[in-house]
Amino acid sequence: IPSSSSSSSTFDPYKDSILAKVIGITLDHLLIPHIPHTIRCSALRLLSLLFLPITPKTPPSFISTLLTPQEIIDLNYLQIILSTFAVSLDSPSVRASALQGAFILYSRGFNLDLNKFYSISGELCRDDDERVRVCAVMMIWVLSNLNPNKTIEAEVQFK
């Protein structure tokens, strides 16, 4: 056991953070053009589970010791990623996983972009795949419960 006086043997839990590496690899896999949809699905859910917000409780100095500036994902960027893959023509399971990722963020207590996800969910209610439709209805329910008194102009016409 090294002595506590030795500064060279001090353990730094955030140096070469595993979390930083996982987030970087996950983002890289989302950008690969011909990657299997099962990997994209897992990557979308994993990003939602690993997301670390920059809030007063976790100041940027803490986050910067955990991740490099290139690997810090803010909530808006993550929501853009999820909303982009929610309307992807790649695979129904990718669309469903993107909505599940947004639901994971909601269940972790983060605020979602009401207008963006409501319009996407409205469009996805007409998807051919049942899993996507179920996730879309679940997301509309979540957004309705987040802001019960807010009226939203739906661009989608339900038939």
Short description:
With 159 residues, the protein is an all-alpha fold.
Order of helices and strands: HHHHHHH
| Alpha-beta classification | mainly alpha
Helical content (DSSP H or I, runs of 4+): 55-70%
**Number of helices in the DSSP assignment:** 7
Q: What Rg is obtained from the alpha carbons, in whole angstroms?
A: 19 Å
Account of the 3D structure:
With 159 residues, this protein is an all-alpha fold. The chain has seven helices and no strands. It has helices at 18-31, 37-50, 60-66, 75-86, 92-107, 114-124, 130-146. The radius of gyration is 19 Å and the shape is globular.
Structure keywords:
159 residues, mainly alpha, 57% helix, 0% strand, disordered N terminus
Would you spell out the secondary-structure blueprint of this structure?
Layout: H1 18-31, H2 37-50, H3 60-66, H4 75-86, H5 92-107, H6 114-124, H7 130-146
Helix pairs in contact: 1-2, 2-5, 4-5, 5-7, 6-7
